[in-house]
């Protein structure tokens, strides 16, 4: 551990309550998660330090520094306007100051800033710090797939779980009912009193934000990434007016392919993470009923325009993550020679980028892989 | 076996192809299923007798007998207008004539006629005849729950499976893509060559209507009944504009309660029937996104009117099955003293019939049963 760390608490109590929490990131989801956490730390002062620090990338906004505005008005006027934040949530512009003395780090930054933030934090984090990543998705390369939480874990040497679910920042901020899944296996160096499922449940659970803690990080990470490809396919068939049952059929086949992908690339992941959890089936349902990927695909189907043109026209310079994921997954399964195991993902890619007709979908799904098991009887 | 049965085939070949098929029922779903079957028997003349008989309750329609119209024009003008039926689908007004010589019976009649039809058939069906019931649901009494397929099996002494899925007759008739699940365990007296999963797959699978055969009749029957209660709850929260993630959360919690109910009342049923099959998760998704039960509940939430008044106003004398099921399930779990295991079903009942506020839902779901397992770690 670097000598530059000074703790006002001694080594031996890093694993013991009260735990100090820092949220790294302050976009609309980061601020929302910080709000939820601050509500809970305030209510559980034996378990948590009441003060929650939120690292905010400092910027000028409406004539003031954003951190000063947040600390004075308790509103993140730029990224979560009109939502009153708890007084015990403090905005901190200095990254290292924000994490000093914290036992629990919650990562909630855009993917593209992850490497930079991690390089700044590296060497400054006590190895017994516990982390939860709210970044959705996977890092897909041509031959392999990596969990974003593993990237944090490797760079900083700290045990990292992840949080994902059927959530929209605005809804959670307005205290509308939803749920989320936290995946946090017990650390190998766990001692009773350390951060565990109960601690994280208490940190995140609100009457309007229900938590389920599981131990399958890979499962929820994969679901979070692949749902976007499925949403595109559902958008296609919605655009062609094939009906709700066609959409449900595509959603179901997508769920089965997610499971197959999970078990293939992360054999220890659990089927139930996909089929029973908020981060699995629930998030798949919402993602397939609206959202950018769905809308982009629907417009492709109704207008005949290319993915590229629709993305420009519809999304105003923003990108649809599903397009990237569809391409990355295609490359991966092509290089691993297992395309025929994923007819929905592969056909979606072909429709998106190679002009294949949407009408081919039922035919491509009508093969031996259409059964979730190869034999009719289990 | 009654002496009144005369077969033009001998006893020893009742279990062998080619199999003759009769569809009992000719409403819009019955006629659609008969169409699908007739397309397949025509294409597989070694496995099936090409002629498919459909028992049609004879009535006058537009100046003619309905069976005559169907056989002349190949359109069921009353129950499936504008859809051309295959020439090898023959309408038969005499129930016993329609089933004579058939190896496979497909039941597709409204629930209220089941007892009467069974009493007419009793004693006239060869015990080695195989059946598939398309009737959705359960027979719920105050202390018990029975599968509709078991009722057919008991009355007629024939092995009976069932078919259910995310299907709408009109969409399947128009050959829009969808899927369905068939549950058909191998009969105990099965001999190779007899009706099995492959036979049923071939009988029902079309390029636009994909089949998965499993062996869990209880699972898909329970899903088919309970989804309607869940759809009501989703309708409530949609009516209050709680957002898509609230709806997905309710859908997910409903799925978990379905599973719990299934395992409690039919311990041999499989979790995957609910979480992976068309008759499970896919039908749940479509039922919760539209349909009578959803719409009724949504209107209750937006207007404050009672279930009874909305049913009259919205459904024109038709009934919403979910209201009946919610009441029946409430009585059953009350008598079996396990209400606290089903907070979503119970709270939905209380909202429907005892004026409890919809707003209580998150609180009622926020208890130890909110976790799919009692411990955080499996």
TrEMBL record, chains A, B:
GO terms for biological process: carbohydrate metabolic process; glycerol-3-phosphate catabolic process. Its EC number is 1.1.1.8. It comes from the Eukaryota. Residues 21-184 form the Glycerol-3-phosphate dehydrogenase NAD-dependent N-terminal domain. Residues 216-358 form the Glycerol-3-phosphate dehydrogenase NAD-dependent C-terminal domain. This is Glycerol-3-phosphate dehydrogenase [NAD(+)]. GO terms for cellular component: cytosol; nucleus. Belongs to the NAD-dependent glycerol-3-phosphate dehydrogenase family. Keywords: NAD, Oxidoreductase. InterPro entries: 6-PGluconate_DH-like_C_sf (IPR008927), 6PGD_dom2 (IPR013328), G3P_DH_NAD-dep (IPR006168), G3P_DH_NAD-dep_C (IPR006109), G3P_DH_NAD-dep_euk (IPR017751), G3P_DH_NAD-dep_N (IPR011128), NAD(P)-bd_dom_sf (IPR036291). Substrate binds at residues 136, 292-293. The gene is GPD2. GO terms for molecular function: glycerol-3-phosphate dehydrogenase (NAD+) activity; NAD binding; protein homodimerization activity. NAD(+) binds at residues 25-30, 57, 113, 169, 292, 321. It holds the Pfam family NAD_Gly3P_dh_N. PROSITE patterns: NAD_G3PDH (PS00957). It catalyses: sn-glycerol 3-phosphate + NAD(+) = dihydroxyacetone phosphate + NADH + H(+). The active site is at residue 227.
